Amino acid sequence: MNISPHQISVSGIDIEINRKPIKNLHLGVYPPHGKVRVTAPMHICDESIRLAAIGKLAWIKHQQSKFQAQPRQSQREMVSGESHYFLGQRYLLQVVEHQGKSYIALENKSVMLLYVKPTTSHEKRLEIIQQWYRAQLKAIIPALIDKWKAIVGVEINEWGVKQMKTKWGSCNIDDHRIWLNLELIKKPLHCIEYIIVHELVHLLERHHSDRFKAVMDKVMPHWRIYRDELNQLPLGHNDWS
Fold it and tell me: In this structure, is residue 138 part of a structural domain?
């Protein structure tokens, strides 16, 4: 039995397999392209995983079709007239060339002003916006965590922001640490709160069990609406990283 991370193919669908010291098998389909990943107990063989995947083929294909149907932003060229998103609001980018320090300002809830030197490259413009996004998300997270950890009834030791290809957030239960996807700063505030609550509840319940859903229902009754809204919003471009 292969216990290192690897792939199998089921009806033409590639499935990534990771084995961990857990009790139950978990199968998920992840954005942006519908990648299929299985996390399985150490003792379960590939053939058993294959049979489990076959039993969920219809569900897997349905989930993948939803991701493929989602609107996607084209790759950003960092030029005036492009659409950029911040906290669920669409802004038109306006590049302002000047000789001072590079910075970003929002105007009239509709324009994102990017002040850069005339020689600033596409890559550097993108880096400036990403740094601004990161700073904005980090600025709003502490208050949201303080609010929701009191409601959920948990404590965390650490949180962070990073680019994530397949998840909006993740949680290290043993270390009481959560990570949030930088892309969340482009989504409405209540969607960011939903992901924070989702990860905090995982500190009480590791899996997406009935208990997990019951706690979510108690602390955030409309979480399914927020989840569906988040999954229907435009994804990053096809090379989302």
Answer: yes
